[in-house]
Amino acid sequence: MKLFLLALLLCSLKGVDSMVKNYTPEVTNANLAGRITATTITFQQPLCQFDSEINATPGLIFWLVVANSQRGQNTFDAITFVQPSLMTHQTASTADYYLTLRTLAERYLCPPTSSSNGEMYFVRVGQETTCRTETCNVPLNNSKSYSVKFILINPSLQNSPNVIAQTNWSSFISLKTVVEPRNIDPSPRGRSAGMIVITAILSVLLFLLLAFFVAMLLMVCCRSTGKSDISEPIPRWGSLKRYNTHNLKDTNIGPYAMKI
Amino acid sequence: MAKGVKVVQGLLIFGNVVIMLCGLALTAECIYHVSDQHGLWPLLSAAHNDDIFAAAWIGLFTGFSFFILAIVGIVGVMKSFRGLLLAYLILMIIVFIFEVASCITAATHRDFFVPNFFLKQMLTLYENRNWQNDEQFQNYVGLTTAWKRIMPENECCGINGPQDWINFNSAFRESHLDADFPWPRQCCTTNSVAQIENVDACKLGVNGFVYTQGCFESIVGPLNRHTWGVAWFGFAILCWTFFVLVGTMYYYAILDI
């Protein structure tokens, strides 16, 4: 008789306590550019975890519990009757947890293998920037870290423990901390070899050119004071014909050459 | 003596013909650079760092001056006009100095093209609406428009990738929420009729729905190529011109011995 009572008690206890699945929500490991941003975290969907419960009772609803502290986790875990409409993001500031992402249970059934090719299953926490429902999925607060778990609720149960099954809490996940652009140093990483070569060689060339030019002017000036009066005419192209039988001092004889 | 002089004359004329052709080529190259086929000027202008275009403008005019002066030089050498040759030398040296400036500016400026330079500027100016005056207004709008065109055109996003937009705070972030606009919509892949394929997948950053490549190469590639041309081609012309000018000086000096 005693044994029977104990067994009954155990059975009822099992009925009261919701079943904690050996599953921990995880940030998706898919190669997503926006896995974690400053206000959102993308989790893997808890597919295939609750198939027996979902198939046993129709009309079950999934909720995602988002907690931003250990205290929030503990507070939520102590609750037996979960009322999602009273646990929205509006109460999160005091309660440190809230419920969001109401999902029909069938959505997290194991997908048929045929349709799973190319499909991706994510849950993005913090997605809704404009709230349309009370329990909307508001952007997360960048300064906090978050832990989530999925719970399966039977909405037809009133005033009695209504959580059919749940997952473990995920670890606390910090959001991306953004860097201020003014902290970026845009200065170049030193001088390139090409720039140094060009600058050095061109400076030398320019210096040489000017030096040669001055030397040339000096040479011509000095010579013009004491130059000899006989000089060989410089050949010129373009005039009718070069004609230099006359040792004329003036080399500018082109047009007159024809006359002689 | 006369034969030696003729050789010098021939060499100088050849040298000037080369300068002529190179001058034309430099002008053409600089026109191409200045015309900004890739529409990158707003990116540099917004950061007041468009010296590269200044270098190209200088190169454009010096190239043309080289062309004209080379003709003057050829005439001067052929006719042995001392006055003309002196004018040629003086003008050439002036143009030479300008081309040295263009060359060094271009070469120096290449070093500024580091990812962080474009990143900082993109973050602070893209979609920035806090302009104080007309100039800023034009710069900001020009930069935003340029970015909105560059990203879809080159199928890239940000400087290093879409992460740039979520790793850093930005003017864009101030007006666009992180959850809705982790990056601008221009980062989303589009179908053949230029419609975004899948906005939600793009927001998540799923491969194939967002351009994961950064735009740095698409921006700096053309700029670097043009700058390289302006700098090194100008440098080559200057080296050649140096010898031609020294030869002309020699010719001028022996002209009435």
TrEMBL record, chain A:
<protein>
    <submittedName>
        <fullName>Uroplakin 3B like 1</fullName>
    </submittedName>
</protein>
<dbReference type="GO" id="GO:0016020">
    <property type="term" value="C:membrane"/>
</dbReference>
<keyword id="KW-0732">Signal</keyword>
<keyword id="KW-1133">Transmembrane helix</keyword>
<feature type="transmembrane region" description="Helical">
    <location>
        <begin position="193"/>
        <end position="220"/>
    </location>
</feature>
<dbReference type="InterPro" id="IPR024831">
    <property type="entry name" value="Uroplakin-3"/>
</dbReference>
<feature type="signal peptide">
    <location>
        <begin position="1"/>
        <end position="18"/>
    </location>
</feature>
<keyword id="KW-0812">Transmembrane</keyword>
<keyword id="KW-0472">Membrane</keyword>
Automatic annotation (TrEMBL), chain B:
<dbReference type="GO" id="GO:0016020">
    <property type="term" value="C:membrane"/>
</dbReference>
<dbReference type="InterPro" id="IPR008952">
    <property type="entry name" value="Tetraspanin_EC2_sf"/>
</dbReference>
<protein>
    <recommendedName>
        <fullName>Tetraspanin</fullName>
    </recommendedName>
</protein>
<comment type="subunit">
    <text>Heterodimer with uroplakin-3A (UPK3A) or uroplakin-3B (UPK3B).</text>
</comment>
<feature type="transmembrane region" description="Helical">
    <location>
        <begin position="85"/>
        <end position="107"/>
    </location>
</feature>
<dbReference type="InterPro" id="IPR018499">
    <property type="entry name" value="Tetraspanin/Peripherin"/>
</dbReference>
<keyword id="KW-1133">Transmembrane helix</keyword>
<feature type="transmembrane region" description="Helical">
    <location>
        <begin position="230"/>
        <end position="253"/>
    </location>
</feature>
<feature type="transmembrane region" description="Helical">
    <location>
        <begin position="12"/>
        <end position="34"/>
    </location>
</feature>
<comment type="similarity">
    <text>Belongs to the tetraspanin (TM4SF) family.</text>
</comment>
<keyword id="KW-0812">Transmembrane</keyword>
<feature type="transmembrane region" description="Helical">
    <location>
        <begin position="54"/>
        <end position="78"/>
    </location>
</feature>
<dbReference type="Pfam" id="PF00335">
    <property type="entry name" value="Tetraspanin"/>
</dbReference>
<dbReference type="InterPro" id="IPR000301">
    <property type="entry name" value="Tetraspanin_animals"/>
</dbReference>
<keyword id="KW-0472">Membrane</keyword>
